[in-house]
Amino acid sequence: MRETLSQHIIDEEGILLKFLIDKIGKEASEPYIKILQDHLKIMKLVEQSVESTYTGWTETENDLNTLKETLAEHHKQEEDVLYPKVISLL
After folding, report:
1. Domain-by-domain residue ranges, the chain?
2. What's the pLDDT at 69?
3. Neighbours of 35 (CB within 10 A)
4. Which residue did the predictor score with more confidence, 54 or 25?
5. Which of 57, 64, 77, 80 is 20 to 30 A from 39 (CA-CA)?
6. pLDDT tens track for 35-58
């Protein structure tokens, strides 16, 4: 799972970041870069969730809830902010 998620992050950031910076410049891309930086937080939460499975359900449940909330917010930001911007620049 880690490899699949890592590849998704690399692909998405590599393609979208380059595209945005080429089209609107680094400064104007800052809000979109911040959305993409959530990938690091998500990856850490995934790793914590996997590690917590060894310590007991109580810790795992908290980590999974945090991961679920973070993913939902990240997805919303991508769908509502990032992707519409990219599409508008095509």
Report:
1. 2-89
2. 96
3. 19
4. 25
5. 57
6. 999 999 999 988 887 777 777 666
Tell me which DSSP letter residue 88 carries. H
Question: Which stretches within the chain are classed as H helix?
Answer: 2-52, 57-77, 83-89
Q: Token match 């769908």: residue?
A: 79
Residues 41, 26: Cα–Cα separation, whole Å: 22
Six-digit token string for 79 = 């769908």
Identity of residue 74: H
| pTM of the entire predicted model | 0.83
Tokens at residue 2, please? 């880690």
Instruction: Find, among 69, 70, 68, 72, the residue nearest to 80 by Cα.
Output: 72
Average pLDDT over residues 17-26: 96
Q: How far is CA 63 from CA 34, 38, 60, in A?
A: 22, 16, 5
Please provide the size of the chain in residues: 90
CA distance 68 to 74: 10
